[in-house]
Design brief:
- The chain is of the alpha/beta class.
- A six-stranded mixed β-sheet has the order 1-2-3-4-5-6, with helices on one face.
- Strand 24, helix 16 and strand 25 form a beta-alpha-beta unit.
- The two termini are about 45 Å apart.
Length: about 475
């Protein structure tokens, strides 16, 4: 028996490879399916099933392409309706993977079709459960993604029943394998570990502590940040199908000359520059947005941009395909190509380019103390509320496309996040929108909090300590 977690940090997403006696099941695959086929081939095994825990909202699953390439059967839980062939399993139904048995547990709550998959080993003992977005380490899935179809309170009530009737009664030793880890927007505060056990979660997960159903609904639905707009588009793609990834990548890998690249710009294509922030700031094409490959690149690109609109890429040599593949994972299908030769080709063609000045902690402290420069904090609300500079303006990065117009383009802004990745995205966006007096703060809050500047803190946490 082989059970392998395939974790993708930049998406905080976990797929799973299960193998027994030459048969393989893949759970919640990413859209770029090659790795699963290669893994099965390396073991002389065949992919028999593709189990989907639900219609994913935060990424485009690879179920359709993987099934077409391998002949595997796509399995969803009860109530599922799709535009492509699937096996809609019944609650309690069991399917064989070699000498292993997979039992379908219908666990609605995150979505109506959400299901967990309980794996029995060769001896018929419960070994692990793949919980999708129903149960995470330290958290449960958000129940607010079906507005207009079901209320978050209705879904939270269903989740309470799923947890108490299907998952919590399992033996404490059963391993919990969720679909996401820390950083995913599918939960409020997912723990940093990527797996756990039923016993550990019953002891430590806030949502599994003794409480009434009414209290559970109130607790789980409180303080959920609005879902990114692309969530609803990705869920639709996963339900209705999508363009083959091979076609999308082939189009995206079109090498564009400077003239062709410029023509696409004039036609309205958005420029994504995937170089790391430390390189990007020293020179970039005007109106380019910096989503560096060294962070949650695709997530932030999809959060701020319309995934259906044309995209053109600037990347370091050799990073073009990675830049494109990672965008396809979240539903970008209109990638028109990349700049052949990268930013150097643009400079060598004597084209106009821009820069963003970054300031270190000493310069920031002097500016904050002795000037009227505005400080823009683009961290998440929870981060800001925990502690922030008293004079800072809060504009979380996920809101910048809708709220940047509230800022004054004549003012000068020092932009910071926690470490510098998100602040460079914000600075590049503001630059693209005509804000010329924008500087990035090196090191972000990790440096700022050590300075002798007035800080406001969450008084409840101060008193607790």
């Amino acid at each position: 028996m082989i059970v392998q977690q395939l974790y993708t940090n930049c998406l905080a997403q976990a797929a799973y490879y299960i193998e027994s006696d030459g048969e393989v099941a893949i759970i919640d695959p990413l859209r770029d399916y090659d790795a699963y086929i290669e893994l099965a081939n390396s073991h002389n095994a065949n992919i028999k099933y593709i189990f989907e825990t639900h219609f994913h909202a935060d990424f485009v699953s690879g179920h359709v392409d993987l099934a077409q390439k391998t002949g595997a059967t796509i399995v969803y839980g009860p109530t599922t309706q799709t535009s492509f062939p699937v096996h809609v399993a019944q609650d309690g139904e069991e399917l064989k993977i070699g000498k292993l048995t997979m039992r379908i547990l219908h666990t609605p709550g995150h979505t109506p079709e959400s299901s967990s998959y309980l794996l029995f080993d060769e001896n018929g003992k419960e070994y692990c459960v793949f919980t999708g977005d129903t149960l995470f380490v330290g958290d449960v899935g958000r129940p607010d993604l079906l507005d207009g179809v079901m209320t978050k309170e209705e879904l939270a009530g269903m989740m309470y029943d799923s947890l108490h009737n299907k998952l919590m009664p399992l033996p404490d030793s059963v391993i919990v394998y969720p679909a996401h880890g820390a950083g995913s927007a599918c939960g409020k505060n997912i723990g940093k570990e990527t797996f756990s056990t039923i016993g550990e979660q019953k002891a430590k997960n806030y949502a599994l502590q003794p409480m009434s159903k009414e209290k559970f609904i109130a607790t789980v639905t409180e303080g959920i940040a609005p879902a990114p707009a692309y969530f609803f588009k990705d869920a639709k793609l996963n339900k209705q199908g999508y363009a083959p990834i091979d076609d999308v990548i082939t189009q995206g890998m079109t090498a564009l000359s400077v003239a062709d690249f410029e023509a696409r710009m004039k036609e309205g294509a958005t420029i994504i520059d995937t170089r790391i922030p430390d390189v990007f700031e020293h020179g970039f094409i005007p109106k380019a947005l910096n989503f560096g490959l060294n962070g949650q690149y695709a997530i932030w690109a999809a959060t701020l941009l319309d995934i259906s609109k044309p995209i053109i890429i600037v990347a370091d040599a050799g990073k073009e395909k990675e830049s494109i593949e990672r965008l396809t994972r979240v539903g970008f299908d209109a990638i028109q190509g990349y700049l052949n030769g990268g930013f150097d080709a643009w400079k060598n063609a004597d084209k106009r380019w821009d820069m963003i000045i970054s300031v270190d902690e000493e310069e920031f402290e002097l500016d904050a103390k002795h000037t009227d420069i505005k400080i823009l904090d683009v961290r998440k609300p929870g981060e800001f509320n925990d502690a922030h500079l008293t004079k800072a303006i809060h504009l979380s990065l996920d809101k910048i496309t809708t709220e940047a117009d509230n800022l004054n383009k004549d003012e000068e802004y020092l932009v910071h996040c926690a470490g510098g990745y998100r602040s460079m995205i914000a600075a590049s966006y503001l630059k693209a929108k005509g804000f010329q007096r924008v500087k990035n703060v090196l090191g972000g809050w990790s440096k700022i909090q050590t300075m002798k500047l007035p800080i406001s803190r969450d008084q409840r946490k101060v008193e607790a300590n």
